C-alpha cells in the first residue's frame, strides 16, 4: 500500500513538472470545488437566533391593540348610508370639462377642408342646383313617363296611372322633385296639376282598345 502511494506521488510530481499550466488549472478547480462543497458538508446549527427586542422609548406606552371580532361577522351598513358615501366620494364623480380649464383633450380637432374636398362640395352643390332648376321647369305628365291605363267614374272617382290606383286629390309622384296632383277624373282622361298648371292625360288608344269589352262579354254581363 505504501509502495503504491509513493509510486502515485512520484508519478504526480513528474506530470506536474512536465505540464505546469495543467497543474495550475487543476489547482484552481480544486479550490472552487472546496469553496462550493464546504458549506454543504458543514453541520447546520439548530439554535435559532432570538429576535432582538424593538427599542421602546422611555415613558411611552405601547399602542392599544385593535379589537378582535370573535364572531367573524362583517359589519352591516344601511344602503342609504352607502349611497350617501358614494355620492360624496369625489373619485366616483365624472369629470366635467369647462372652457376655463384649457383645451379639451377628448374633443375632435376639426381640420380645414382640403382643395379636393372643396371642389367636390362645389360640384355637388352645382348638381343639386341644376336638379332644382330642372324640377322647376315645365314638365308635362307625358314627358315624365306617366301613362293612364283606366278611369272609374263612381261616387269616388279613381284612375290607374303607371299601374297604381289614385283617387281625386292624391299625389302622383314621379321623383322627389316632380310630383303631380290628381285634380280631375273623366271618361278616358284625367287632369294632373303641378305648380299652378294643369295638364290633361289621356288613355292611350291601344290601352282603350284592349280594355273595351267585346259584344259577348257585354251580353254576358247584362244577362241576369
Mind explaining what this structure looks like?
This protein has 224 residues and is an alpha+beta fold. It is 38% helix and 16% strand. The protein has helices at 2-18, 20-41, 79-88, 115-136, 205-211, 215-222; strands at residues 148-152, 158-161, 164-167, 171-173, 179-186, 189-194, 197-202. Strands 4-5-6-7 form a 4-stranded antiparallel beta sheet, with no helix packed on it. The radius of gyration is 55 Å and the shape is elongated. The model is unreliable at 46-50, 55-66 and 212-224 (pLDDT under 50).
Supply database-style keywords:
single chain, 224 residues, alpha+beta, four-stranded antiparallel sheet, three-stranded antiparallel sheet, 6 helices, 38% helix, 16% strand, elongated, disordered C terminus
Kindly estimate the percentage of residues that lie in beta strands according to DSSP: 15-25%
Could you give the distance between the termini? 150 Å
The DSSP helix count reads 6
Helix percent reads 25-40%
- Low-pLDDT sequence parts: 46-50, 55-66, 212-224
Radius of gyration using CA atoms only: 55 Å
Instruction: Tell me about the largest β-sheet.
Output: 4 strands, antiparallel
Morphology: elongated
Overall pLDDT: 75
The sequence of SSEs as H and E is: HHHHEEEEEEEHH
Structural class: alpha+beta
Tally the beta strands. 7
Strand order of the largest sheet: 4-5-6-7
Amino acid at each position: 500500500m505504501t509502495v503504491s502511494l509513493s509510486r502515485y506521488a512520484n508519478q504526480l510530481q513528474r506530470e506536474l513538472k512536465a505540464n505546469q499550466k495543467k497543474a495550475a488549472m487543476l489547482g484552481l478547480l480544486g479550490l472552487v470545488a472546496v469553496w462550493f462543497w464546504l458549506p454543504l458538508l458543514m453541520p447546520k446549527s439548530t439554535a435559532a437566533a432570538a429576535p432582538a427586542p424593538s427599542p421602546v422609548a422611555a415613558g411611552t406606552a405601547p399602542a392599544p391593540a385593535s379589537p378582535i371580532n370573535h364572531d367573524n361577522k362583517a359589519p352591516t351598513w344601511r344602503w342609504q348610508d352607502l349611497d350617501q358615501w358614494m355620492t360624496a366620494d369625489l373619485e366616483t364623480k365624472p369629470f366635467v370639462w369647462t372652457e376655463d380649464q384649457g383645451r379639451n383633450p377628448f374633443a375632435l380637432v376639426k381640420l380645414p377642408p382640403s382643395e379636393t374636398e372643396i371642389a367636390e362640395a362645389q360640384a355637388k352643390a352645382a348638381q343639386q342646383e341644376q336638379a332644382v332648376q330642372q324640377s322647376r321647369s315645365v314638365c308635362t305628365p307625358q314627358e315624365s313617363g306617366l301613362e293612364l291605363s283606366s278611369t272609374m267614374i263612381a261616387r269616388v272617382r279613381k284612375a290607374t296611372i303607371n299601374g297604381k290606383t289614385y283617387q281625386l286629390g292624391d299625389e302622383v309622384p314621379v321623383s322627389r322633385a316632380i310630383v303631380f296632383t290628381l285634380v280631375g277624373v273623366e271618361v278616358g282622361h284625367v287632369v294632373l296639376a303641378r305648380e299652378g298648371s294643369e295638364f290633361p292625360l289621356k288613355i292611350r288608344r291601344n290601352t282603350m282598345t284592349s280594355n273595351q269589352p267585346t259584344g259577348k262579354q257585354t251580353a254576358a254581363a247584362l244577362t241576369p
